[in-house]
């Protein structure tokens, strides 16, 4: 299909408007997703530390109930 007129300026204008509108919007969306993933990763690390501390505390309590002593006696 042949086009009757020159679309050079009009197509450049459409691309420029598209980039001016959707460029920042997509940038904000990417930045938001990035920040949320970093916050999620930090929260997972914090929960892993808490879980490992809880496991150590439970093991120590269980060992004390059975009379085992992990410390040094002087």
TrEMBL record:
Keywords: Membrane, Transmembrane, Transmembrane helix. The chain crosses the membrane at residues 12-30. This is Uncharacterized protein. It comes from Solanum tuberosum (Potato).
């Amino acid at each position: 299909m042949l086009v009757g007129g020159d679309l050079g300026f009009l197509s450049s204008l459409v691309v420029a408007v598209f980039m001016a509108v959707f460029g920042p919007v997509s940038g904000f969306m990417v930045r938001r997703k990035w920040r949320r993933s970093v916050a999620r990763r930090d929260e997972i690390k914090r929960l892993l530390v808490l879980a490992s501390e809880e496991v150590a505390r439970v093991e120590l309590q269980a060992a004390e109930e059975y009379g085992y002593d992990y410390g040094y006696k002087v």
